[in-house]
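Good morning,

Attaching, inline, the backbone tokens for the sequence recovery test we're adding to the shared suite. The designed sequence is right after.
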């Protein structure tokens, strides 16, 4: 009788195990360059908590469009304007869209180079004027850097020594590490800890205008329940802790 009971228990556990395995989803998250650090933290924690598999992809160009229109893909992170356009086109399920994080601006130099003083707005201005060359991107962070430079009245003064990166060519730190310029400015979350560079600190004061980011579920998702569960996790208090670990801030409620 005991042997039969043990066999029955094993059988039940095996069936239960199979049901869990069958219920586990494989989620693909499409994340832009400025979203990857936080999304990887969130994805790993959500996978551990839920049993679902989460893969974060940084696709661009035709590969991104193919994923969005044909899949496989479930969740996407974008800036608010780009997300709104995707929702209007029907690529993203409109009622799933939610702001989830803010990424502030930071400054880096090449590894081993002296770290300039950026502790105040005046010190930051002096550092920009003293730099031989400055690099920043063409995306949201680049627009906000340019706005800050304009606010300081330095647009024309710095134009000749400014390098703009972007258009899928790589983050600012990639070019900074190669020596293409002396000072790099971009989102802190993608600057900290990059080999060949040293992070100096955040852009000071009201010149540090963060880039907002939203998350939504793609129309082509075949795992919509799991995708919605991940979206909820991304804006949860636990998610906020993980975002801060990646040098990001949760979006205001």
């Amino acid at each position: 009788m005991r042997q039969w009971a043990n066999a029955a228990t094993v059988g039940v556990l095996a069936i239960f195990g199979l049901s869990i395995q069958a219920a586990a989803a494989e989620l693909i998250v499409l994340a832009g360059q400025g979203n990857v650090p936080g999304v990887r933290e969130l994805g790993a924690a959500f996978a551990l908590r839920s049993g679902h598999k989460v893969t974060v992809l940084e696709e661009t160009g035709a590969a991104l469009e193919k994923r969005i229109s044909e899949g496989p893909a479930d969740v996407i992170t974008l800036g608010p304007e780009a997300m709104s356009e995707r929702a209007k086109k029907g690529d993203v399920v409109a009622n799933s869209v939610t702001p989830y994080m803010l990424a502030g601006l930071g400054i880096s130099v090449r590894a081993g180079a002296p770290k300039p003083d950026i502790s105040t707005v005046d010190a930051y201005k002096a550092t920009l004027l003293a730099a031989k060359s400055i690099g920043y991107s063409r995306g949201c962070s680049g627009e906000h850097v340019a706005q800050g430079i304009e606010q300081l009245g330095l647009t024309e003064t710095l134009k000749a020594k400014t390098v703009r990166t972007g258009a899928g060519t790589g983050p600012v730190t990639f070019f900074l590490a190669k020596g293409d310029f002396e000072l790099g400015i971009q989102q802190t979350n993608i600057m900290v800890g990059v080999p060949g560079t040293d992070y100096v600190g955040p852009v000071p004061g009201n010149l540090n205008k963060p880039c907002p980011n939203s998350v939504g579920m793609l129309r082509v998702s075949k795992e919509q329940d799991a995708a919605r569960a991940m979206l909820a996790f991304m804006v949860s208090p636990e998610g906020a802790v993980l975002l801060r670990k990646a040098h990001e801030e949760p979006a205001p409620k």
